[in-house]
Amino acid sequence: MITFIPTPIGNPQDITIRALRLFEQAEIFLCEDTRETKRLLRLLSERFEFAMPSAVFVSFNEHNGRERIGELGDELAKKNVVYVSDAGMPVISDPGQILVEYCQKHDIRYDVLPGASAVVTAYAASGFGEGKFLFFGFLPHKGSDRSKALGEALNTGYPTILYESPHRLMKLLEEIAAIDPDRVLFAAKELTKKFQRYYKMPAQEILKLFGNAQIRGEWVVIIEAKRQERQPLYLEDILALDLAPKPKAKLLAKISGESVKEWYEKLIKSVEF
User: Fold this and answer.
1) Least enclosed by CB within 10 Å: which of 131, 212, 252, 270?
2) Which long-range contacts (CB under 8 A, 24 or more apart) does 112-115 make?
3) How far is CA 273 from CA 126, 178, 266, 267, 269, in A?
4) Rounded to two decimals, what is the model's pTM?
5) DSSP letters of 17-31?
6) At residue 246, what are phi and psi to the nearest 5 degrees?
7) β-pair type (184-189, 219-223)
8) Per-residue pLDDT of the chain in tens (273 residues, 90 and over written 9)
């Protein structure tokens, strides 16, 4: 049995009782970083009623995930296995999806616990009212791949959520401000931690606010949905279209108040003339 367990994104009190009990029962921990997981478990042991498990800790990341699956083999099905990322919901922006696919393919029991997620926490705090959003995770670091991904993020038609590291945040803000300086951004720093901060303002203003400050902590940036303004369509525009009389008559009828039949007859007469 493999259980995917969210870990706190900042405040250790966000751990769930269910997660603590499953940690105690675990025989194998698959960790994005074993050092981070052990540090978290020591902290939980000090602050809560939690007994440190006698378990094997195995690194499982984007570089060695498939190799680890091959090494562990039958143990994944026979033992109590816990999968955790460094912080937040497993599989979101980490390599856990290959383990989910493996469980599905080999009929291995697995479960996913609900818990902390920077994506939904930031969106709830943003105040963007659409009720829908897209999550892009981390953009490519550089080059045409980054430019293309950023262009897509700016033009999805929905609030779009990005993760960003402190040493690339200013680059992201500069890029967005250069493309669309008035686009409103919501930037959340170090969610749930002591120095958590929220900023919501146009890209050019937030860039000016930060100035030459030394950026710290992990960030979630939400890009406001771009409003697509519909251009009015006039009779002259439709009349100029190279369409057969029948579909053109239907379009003209929709915006004029005259019937399709009336327009069809006018179009036929104009062609005959």
Assistant:
1) 212
2) 112/3, 112/4, 113/3, 113/4, 113/5, 113/6, 113/16, 113/18, 113/19, 113/22, 114/6, 115/5, 115/6, 115/7, 115/14, 115/15, 115/16, 115/19, 115/89
3) 61, 54, 10, 10, 6
4) 0.78
5) HHHHHHHHH-SEEEE
6) -65, -55
7) antiparallel
8) 999 999 999 999 999 999 999 999 999 999 999 999 999 999 999 998 889 999 999 999 888 989 999 999 889 999 999 999 999 999 887 888 999 999 999 999 999 999 999 999 999 999 998 789 999 999 998 888 888 999 999 999 999 999 999 999 999 999 999 999 999 999 999 999 999 999 999 999 999 999 888 899 999 999 999 876 555 666 777 888 777 888 888 888 877 778 888 888 888 887 654
CA distance 192 to 169: 19
Other beta carbons less than 10 A from residue 170's beta carbon = 16
The residue length of the chain stands at 273
Q: Which domains does the chain have, with CATH numbers?
A: 2-112 (3.40.1010.10), 118-223 (3.30.950.10), 235-272 (no CATH)
Tokens of 222: 């939400």
Q: Are 30 and 81 in contact (CB under 8 A)?
A: yes
